[in-house]
């Protein structure tokens, strides 16, 4: 059975419910006893392994002494929003990362890519070439399915007003031959088209920028609007992924992104830079 993907709203809700419980000093065992639940149910709610219903949220808020109508309604609305299906629900067999749901609900994405074109801007040919080389055991029908899911993800991005994507690509990304010349030329053309979109800011970090703090470390800073705007840093590595939300982490990655932004090509000059690289491909 495919794993259930946690949405950003669900993540936001469970974090707040955990904060409220710990703030009252009530143990997990005690709240389970009061509500005639199992401790496992409380644990699953607080760790995101199950979706919490609006009615269960009301019961928890009663026990935690949350009486303010506005605060209660915000959390109940989060429970409802967390249960709404996203585009990824049609692809449970090939989409397992919560990143896609966070991406879909973000108001802004600031990212630095060191080796590969970001998924939102990849062509089908580029993705096929990547999957064939990185996961050679994948059967053709699964590759087709993954390309289909990526297309749906990109379509959602193009059709929605948010998020705004600010992508800084290392020059290596444009010069690394993925899938052969024709595939790369098609990919470079896609990047030129993306650079002209109103919700995309694209920059290229040239080799001449030299060494810097993010060498070899791709990252995404996700910004979320709402009553209490928050941000988180997403890191992907060989065996998993990591979300950072601490102020010190956010400050550091924001500082690094701003440094890279200052060193990278001006967004207005990106298309000529891509055309020059395409001419040499």
From TrEMBL:
Which SUPFAM superfamilies does the entry link to? lambda repressor-like DNA-binding domains
HTH cro/C1-type domain residues: 17-70
The record's section on CDD domains has: HTH_XRE (cd00093)
Task: Give one GO term, molecular function aspect.
Answer: DNA binding
In its UniProt entry, what is this protein called?
Transcriptional regulator
- Provenance organism: Actinomadura craniellae
- High-level lineage: Bacteria, Bacillati, Actinomycetota, Actinomycetes, Streptosporangiales
